[in-house]
Amino acid sequence: MADSILEVLAPYVDSSNGPASLATDATAVKYMNRLTTLSLDSIKTTEPQSISHSAHSTLLSLQALSNRSHKAFITSADHLSNLQTLIPSLAQEAKVLQNGIPKLDEEAVRFSTRYAKTGDNQIFDRRKKAMQLSRNVDRISDVLELPALLSTAVSSSSPSSAANNSGAAAGSLSTSKYSTALDLYSHIKRLQSLYPDSPLIKDIVLQAEDAMKDMTTNLIAGLRTQNIRLAAAMRTVGWLRRVAPELENPRGKGSSTGPDEGAFGALFLVCRLASLVSTLEALEPLRELADQETKRRTEGTTTEQTSKSSAWSGGQQTERFLKRYIEIYREQSFAIVSLYKNIFTTETVDNELVSASMSGLKTKPPPKQVKKSDPLQALPPALATFPIHLVQLLTDTLRGYLPNVRDKSSRESLLTQVLYCAASLGRLGGDFSMVLTELETDEEDEESEDDEAGIVREWEQVMRKHRALAGKLEQLTNGPKSSPVSP
Fold first, then answer.
1. Which stretches of sequence are listed as region Disordered (predicted)?
2. What string of DSSP letters covers 100-158?
């Protein structure tokens, strides 16, 4: 039915493609089928209004669409106008690509042949190393930062930087920094054992060794500080054992320098002696005044016209100098020897023997040490000869300046102070009271022999007073018979 109506209406419909296109138009066929379902009255009355309403709605929709998407329409129109020129250009480029494919294939074959993995290919090896370096750049940067971190830890724990801090904070800071530096150095040495042939690791090890030399210098400077504590001294010696293990046995594997001290004992004593000397050098103003009195005394003894009644007398400045000198010497010498014994001396075997003998048990003798092939004898501990040098330092000063003091009570006070100093060191096995009795004066006047004899009698008198005082103190305290002197 719809086809018949379309044939009837075809001459009256304005179609650019003719009746045939109208018959094949799905919309027209659908509308004709709808018309066949309507009555004649509906077609005459309601259908024109419905068509007018639909046309108006369609017009509004087209207007809204053109307002909303007019830019896209213009762009599409421009592209459509250029499509005629783009298609020939695309065809030409495709032809050029087709002609270049054989050449590209040729280059690919040549590249694969040149950079093949088989055989020795230096270029490929360099590229492979560069790629591996790129993958491990973070690890390498961490390894390269190790010397800088080590140097920072060492420099921040140096005595100059620690001086800016105060008290326990400075000690704890130095301890943590030195521990961090030693951990970093151990890590670098471990890397050296894992990669012994790596030039990068070798360079890092060299830089780390330079930093550890600076740390060794700082530790030695720390041993020279004044009033060092036992804990700080033990920590410093322990760090030195880790930083410079070659000092454990400087003469080689078949030698020894003392009980578990190596060269550290001598180094410790030298540093503490340097601290003592620097402390005594602070008395230089008093020493200059004492030198002036020495000069006046020597000038008075060399003048032939001076008589006994007009001889020089005095020595107050020398007394001040010697009193302060002996005080510092007594305190520092006792501290040096005491610190050394606490750090280096091991008496475990002797203590076991003493405790066993006190309990009445039979003890086996200590095992004999196997003698090693050493052409030289084992060196004695550094403390064996150190007190001799300490005593020589004091006796030289007393021999030079004690004759300036002519007042008897002042001389007895100084000599008593020296005896207290000798007794203080005597508690550690370094009593030198009898050595000081051999002091001689340098006076060359006619009464030199009498003066020398007087000094000997003076020493005897001072020692008798000292022993008498010690006996009284023992009776008061009912303690063991020992010197009552404290350091």
1. 291-313
2. HHHHHHHHHHHHHHHT-SSS--HHHHHHHHHHHHHHTHHHHHHHHTHHHHHHHHHHHTS
Q: What is the CA radius of gyration of the chain?
A: 53
Q: Using the structure block, give the residue that is written with the tokens 């830089």.
A: 207
Enumerate residues 6+ apart whose C-beta is below 8 A from 198. none
Check residue 124 and give its pLDDT. Answer: 75
Task: Find where tokens 């002519």 sit.
Answer: 406
Six-digit token string for 108: 């690919």
**In this structure, are residues 208 and 147 in contact, taking their beta carbons and an 8 Å threshold?**
yes
* pLDDT tens track for 231-247: 888 888 888 888 888 77
Instruction: Return d(Cα 437, Cα 464) in angstroms, integer.
Output: 13
Concatenate the DSSP letters of all residues of 254-265 into one string. T---STT-TTHH
Q: List Cα–Cα distances, 42 to 33, 46, 50, 142, 177, in angstroms.
A: 15, 5, 10, 91, 104
- Cα distances from 100 to residues 10, 92, 93, 106, in angstroms, run 58, 13, 10, 10
Q: What is the mean pLDDT of residues 98-103?
A: 92
Contacting residues for 456 by C-beta, under 8 A, at least 6 apart: 437
- Report the C-alpha gap between 114 and 40 in whole angstroms: 89
- Per-residue pLDDT reduced to its tens digit, 3-46: 777 777 777 665 555 555 666 778 878 888 887 888 888 888 88
Confidence grade of residue 59 (pLDDT, cut at 50, 70, 90): very high
- How far apart, in whole angstroms, are the C-alpha atoms of residue 394 and residue 445? 25
